[in-house]
Amino acid sequence: MAQWDLTKKLVPFLDRHLIFPILLNPSLAELYKPEDVQLALYELAKTTDLVDYTITLFEKVFPDQPVPEEFATKRASTLSSINRLEQEAQAVLDVIENPDVAQALRQDKLQNLQYLKDTYGLTLDQITALYNFGQLQFSIGNYSLAADYLYHFRILSTATSLVLSSQWGKLASDLLVGNWDSALEELHGLQEAIDNGSATGPAGTSLAQLQSRTWLLHWSLFLYFRHPEGRTLLLDLFLSPAYLNTIQTSCPWILRYLAAAAIISRKSSAASASRTVRGALQQIVKIIQTEEYQYSDPITLFLKELYVDFDFEGAQKWLSEAEIVLDNDFFLSDFKEEFLENARFIVSEAYIRIHQKIDIADLSARLNMSQGEGEKWIVNLIRDTRMGADAKIDLEKNMVTTHRTHPPIYQSVIEKTRGLARRTQDLSIDMNRRANGEYEAAGRGGGGVGGGSGDKENKSKGAGTGGRGRREEAN
Amino acid sequence: MSRFFRRGGDSSDESSSDEEEELLSGDDSGNEIIPKPSKRAVSGGSDESPDSDDSDDSDDSDEREEEKPIKKVSRFLKTAGSDSEDSDDESVKHIVKSAKDKRMEEMATSGDMIDQKLRINDWAAINTEFDKLTRLVLRQTNLSEPLPPVYLRVLSTLDDAVSKEKEGKKKMDANKARALNTVKHKVKKTIKEYEVQMKEYSADPEAFTAQYAASTQPEVLPKSKKPKKDRGDGEDGEVDAFTTVGKGGKTYSLGAADLYKNLAAIQEARGKKSTDRNEAMKILEKLRQVASTPYSRIRVLLALISSRFDYNTSVSTHMPIDIWTSAQNELNELVSILIEAPQYAVVEDFQIEYDDNVERVPSPSEPIIKVRGSVISYVDRLDEEFTRSLQNIDPHGTEYVDRLKDEKSLYETICRAEVHFEQSDPSSLARVMMRRLEHIYSKPTVVVTILERSTSEALASVLPPTFPSLNNLGTTTALVRALCVHLYQTEFSLLRTRAMLCHVYHHALQNDFHTARDLFLMSHLSETIHNADVATQILFNRAVVQLGLCAFRSGLIKEAQSTLQDIFTTQRVKELLAQGIHQQRYTVLTPEQEKAERARQLPFHMHINTELLEAAFLVSSMLVEIPHLASIDTEELKRKAISKPFRRLLDFADRQVFTGPPESTRDHIMQASKALQDGEWEKCRDLIQSIKIWSLMPEEAAVKEMLAKRIQEEGLRTYLFTYSAYYASLSLSLLATTFSLSVRTVTAIVSKMIWNEELAASLDQAAGTIVFHRVEPTRVQQLAQTLADRVSQMVEQNTKALDQKLGGGGGGGSSWNDRAAGDTGGESQERKGRSDRPRGGQRGSGGARGARGARFAQGLGGRVGGSTAIQA
């Protein structure tokens, strides 16, 4: 099953420290040789300042070799720089932790800086020390401290690139500590920064923007599959045009997580959100279809078989494959049960919608269940959901019969005429305004109305152009 | 009067000197060139010529005046002649020369005389004068000397005068009229005789005169060496030309210094109207043999290649192929020298002045010798001339094929130049790479392999190991990619654009639809292409069309349809692909436009077969449109066609009372469409598969198979749409056997239709049937629906009316417009676009022509973009 494993594809877009948990995922050892995984871990640790951990790993990987000297020296140098930076940073921290200062600080960063400088003699260099120390803390694995320092630094500093870097650092620290709420905040901050183009720094080319977005997509996986509301948020972010294009251009494998999230949040989300989720699913299926030539895995193939080819047998096959993939996936393994249940749900939904009479045995087989389980499942299904169809089980024949009620023709008449009154009203208001000579106001009012109805149109257009824009960036 | 006088003097001086000459030549018995008796007769004639009285008077006095210098001249000549070793021959020459001068003057006089007489309508005098002139000229031509311009001028003036005189004829007296008639006949006859020269003369009298002067001038220059040197290899007629060669030839012994002088002379003469290009080329060829050092060889080759390209001045015709070939060889040689001797460089512009006439060698102070010139422009020119020759040669003859074989060597030259530029000049490298790319991007792998193989064999010695070639890179795609990637990095946006389009085209040709499409979309070219030059727009259209064909071959019918749609809606496929000139109904092209259009045409071997293209487009349209047509039942919806060109054809076919067996591709497709509509998929398949043009499609069998499968599926869909209303249920297995599809496929198709709510039905799994739920609305329901429709129409009308009343200028107005467009979907825009088009065509001016390409490009951009927006 190694062919479906995404570790290799994900790793280039992650921070070194974020890779550790992925590599430590026990199922990885089943896919690859355990020694290889160990070696990879060691190589990874070597590039960080986690000296002690590296030594442990070294002993594991090369049990019969003595630990090289360089680790000792590295350790010493790291410790000395910790001491040095700590002293520098402490000065700033002392000032900031003073409650008077906290009260005196305002929104305006420049003003704050001036205030700190005037009152406490803090210079920019000292504040930068805060950043350096935070970075060092992060690199030695002291994530929560790093998050603290970086947070303070960010509040004070005005250097754009460093602030951005500290944002990334804080996000990584929060992710590693498991502080999901603040991580979410940080993520939104970063997203905004990237979308504004400020994130890309002076060389703010669209290519840099694309890269940052790719990174953000990968990092956010840690958050979204841990945070309780994560899946819906994931759908929101990943389906926004800019990020969707990023996925299509630079990292189509993210589609797996997108598809999985869409399936998982099928039922778990609130009733009001289900409509958007359903739309999301349709959208995702379209993307999967378009990108099939560059990426496919059992999860996307399952959706494709189900919604594009309507091949229930194929869908069933891929679903059982997907089960294994999910098991091995670092992010998705916790959601296996939920995924399976929702996947079954969408299969049976499609099934019932298309069929009038269904053999329970057949449906159970489609869902990888025994007949008894299947029956129970269907009963639950009928009870729980609004299928738009009135389904009954005929136990004698082992059948489910659905009776579809058609929407009465008058309903369409009502729908057609629904907006008319409002439109006419708008028209008369517009006319009145013009009659009163308020041309300017009328223009604006009319524009508002037009904008309202044309909103959806605009959005889809935006997606189109955005799409092409993104592709060029990749190029 | 003074002018008159002078003229008379001239004539007399001529006649007198003639006599003088007569004397001189008298003692040379070896004068074989001049037919003496006739000369005498002529000079006698000139004496007797009916000069006007006053000129006669002046005759004597002038004669005395003129006698001295003439004598002097002749004496001088004589001495010069006696100086030389072969005095006999020489003196003959001189006399010939002076005789000739005499003749010239004589002719000039006669010409002037005729002009004079013309003014007073003295036709008799004109007649005699003309006779005399003709005789002189005859002698001249007997000596195979070029026709003097004076004569031609006289001819043309006479011609004009004669034709003007026609009306006034009656008023003349009999004598005059007779003379006029005679002159008229004579003029006519002579004009016919010298038709060619006349044409040349009338095209550009100055040039002709200058050329004449040039060809006669060297006569004075040559000294004693002339006959010795060149009589041997020149025909008599080219005596004049060869004197110069002789002069050059002298440098054999004299070394390089004179070589540069000659080069400078030729360079100076270059571009002047009087220059005989043949002659310059011959001299240079000689010089090329003489040149021994790399520097001199480079200099000579540079001059020689330019003179080869100068040979043909007219834009419409192509360069003679032998000259092209020699130019190519010389360019090869030049580039080879430059590759072998990197201390020499040919650069387009640099500041250092150097003495043209001195041999230069690399020295420590000047390690690289720079020569002014441009290799890349030669390569460009060579390539362009090749294309032009292909444009002009009949593509169905063997000549075309023969010419096409030269592409191999041309490709070699280009690669050679590429090797050279890789060392020296990065900006030219991009251009030459573009040339190379343009030679391979549209060719199938086999052809590219041949080109590459011969090149790597021919250039084995000079090719650096990193040179992008098929050997190094393995596949043509990799080769094209390597070239393109290099081109993407240049700063010339035009080259980048073209490279991108070539890359797209190549991917499409290799059936790599997704890559090609992504590249195409990412390039954003569809948004900016209307700003590009026409050639690039053509390349863009070609890339789009190839993309469409690629989609078709890969079985992506919908994509193929939407990609090809725009180019077919314009109905100018050939014009847009530069494969033919579109005949416009309302406007006539100006000759310049037509010429430009012709120059733009692609050579035949690059053409994309438009019939095949049309077949692909119509078949994909059929597969998209027919089920769509079957699925809709209201009249209004029916008007919205997906593919307008197809729908038009279909409607036309529908109106046909009698349909015979299909002949053309279109007939096949139309009948197939009808069969598909009727659910006869087998007939449809047979008709489609029997289209002959498929044989031009690579992977013909696979494409046919794919089409058959599509026809089965779309046939099923069409059948269900059309006939579902008449069934309460249908068995899946029956459908499967009817359409020769597996039950599973049928189920999948039906399921999809149900899911997409195209079909009001559901499956009965137990019985294996489709159960239809179609409910016909009752009368009241129908009426209610109609009412609702009407009401919404009314509101729409209201908004429109308000809009018009208040003018669309305000923000409110435009927003209403927007909304209307949004409500009716893309339809209103579509309609706008349609109404735009014919108007543009009618205007048809140059501007409109440019705009048309732009509009097309834009439309296509929207289309393709739109489709991605949907996919996204």
UniProtKB/TrEMBL annotation, chain A:
<dbReference type="GO" id="GO:0071540">
    <property type="term" value="C:eukaryotic translation initiation factor 3 complex, eIF3e"/>
</dbReference>
<dbReference type="InterPro" id="IPR036390">
    <property type="entry name" value="WH_DNA-bd_sf"/>
</dbReference>
<dbReference type="GO" id="GO:0003743">
    <property type="term" value="F:translation initiation factor activity"/>
</dbReference>
<keyword id="KW-0963">Cytoplasm</keyword>
<dbReference type="InterPro" id="IPR000717">
    <property type="entry name" value="PCI_dom"/>
</dbReference>
<dbReference type="InterPro" id="IPR019010">
    <property type="entry name" value="eIF3e_N"/>
</dbReference>
<dbReference type="Pfam" id="PF01399">
    <property type="entry name" value="PCI"/>
</dbReference>
<dbReference type="GO" id="GO:0033290">
    <property type="term" value="C:eukaryotic 48S preinitiation complex"/>
</dbReference>
<keyword id="KW-0648">Protein biosynthesis</keyword>
<dbReference type="Pfam" id="PF09440">
    <property type="entry name" value="eIF3_N"/>
</dbReference>
<comment type="similarity">
    <text>Belongs to the eIF-3 subunit E family.</text>
</comment>
<feature type="compositionally biased region" description="Gly residues">
    <location>
        <begin position="443"/>
        <end position="453"/>
    </location>
</feature>
<dbReference type="InterPro" id="IPR016650">
    <property type="entry name" value="eIF3e"/>
</dbReference>
<dbReference type="GO" id="GO:0016282">
    <property type="term" value="C:eukaryotic 43S preinitiation complex"/>
</dbReference>
<dbReference type="Pfam" id="PF21357">
    <property type="entry name" value="EIF3E_C"/>
</dbReference>
<keyword id="KW-0396">Initiation factor</keyword>
<protein>
    <recommendedName>
        <fullName>Eukaryotic translation initiation factor 3 subunit E</fullName>
    </recommendedName>
</protein>
<comment type="function">
    <text>Component of the eukaryotic translation initiation factor 3 (eIF-3) complex, which is involved in protein synthesis of a specialized repertoire of mRNAs and, together with other initiation factors, stimulates binding of mRNA and methionyl-tRNAi to the 40S ribosome. The eIF-3 complex specifically targets and initiates translation of a subset of mRNAs involved in cell proliferation.</text>
</comment>
<feature type="domain" description="PCI">
    <location>
        <begin position="223"/>
        <end position="407"/>
    </location>
</feature>
<comment type="subunit">
    <text>Component of the eukaryotic translation initiation factor 3 (eIF-3) complex.</text>
</comment>
<feature type="region of interest" description="Disordered">
    <location>
        <begin position="438"/>
        <end position="475"/>
    </location>
</feature>
<dbReference type="GO" id="GO:0001732">
    <property type="term" value="P:formation of cytoplasmic translation initiation complex"/>
</dbReference>
UniProtKB/TrEMBL annotation, chain B:
<dbReference type="Pfam" id="PF26569">
    <property type="entry name" value="EIF3CL_C"/>
</dbReference>
<comment type="subunit">
    <text>Component of the eukaryotic translation initiation factor 3 (eIF-3) complex.</text>
</comment>
<feature type="region of interest" description="Disordered">
    <location>
        <begin position="213"/>
        <end position="239"/>
    </location>
</feature>
<keyword id="KW-0396">Initiation factor</keyword>
<dbReference type="InterPro" id="IPR027516">
    <property type="entry name" value="EIF3C"/>
</dbReference>
<dbReference type="GO" id="GO:0003723">
    <property type="term" value="F:RNA binding"/>
</dbReference>
<feature type="compositionally biased region" description="Acidic residues">
    <location>
        <begin position="11"/>
        <end position="25"/>
    </location>
</feature>
<feature type="region of interest" description="Disordered">
    <location>
        <begin position="1"/>
        <end position="94"/>
    </location>
</feature>
<dbReference type="Pfam" id="PF05470">
    <property type="entry name" value="eIF-3c_N"/>
</dbReference>
<protein>
    <recommendedName>
        <fullName>Eukaryotic translation initiation factor 3 subunit C</fullName>
    </recommendedName>
</protein>
<feature type="domain" description="PCI">
    <location>
        <begin position="604"/>
        <end position="777"/>
    </location>
</feature>
<dbReference type="InterPro" id="IPR008905">
    <property type="entry name" value="EIF3C_N_dom"/>
</dbReference>
<dbReference type="GO" id="GO:0016282">
    <property type="term" value="C:eukaryotic 43S preinitiation complex"/>
</dbReference>
<feature type="compositionally biased region" description="Acidic residues">
    <location>
        <begin position="48"/>
        <end position="65"/>
    </location>
</feature>
<comment type="similarity">
    <text>Belongs to the eIF-3 subunit C family.</text>
</comment>
<keyword id="KW-0963">Cytoplasm</keyword>
<dbReference type="GO" id="GO:0001732">
    <property type="term" value="P:formation of cytoplasmic translation initiation complex"/>
</dbReference>
<feature type="region of interest" description="Disordered">
    <location>
        <begin position="801"/>
        <end position="872"/>
    </location>
</feature>
<dbReference type="GO" id="GO:0003743">
    <property type="term" value="F:translation initiation factor activity"/>
</dbReference>
<comment type="function">
    <text>Component of the eukaryotic translation initiation factor 3 (eIF-3) complex, which is involved in protein synthesis of a specialized repertoire of mRNAs and, together with other initiation factors, stimulates binding of mRNA and methionyl-tRNAi to the 40S ribosome. The eIF-3 complex specifically targets and initiates translation of a subset of mRNAs involved in cell proliferation.</text>
</comment>
<dbReference type="InterPro" id="IPR036388">
    <property type="entry name" value="WH-like_DNA-bd_sf"/>
</dbReference>
<dbReference type="InterPro" id="IPR000717">
    <property type="entry name" value="PCI_dom"/>
</dbReference>
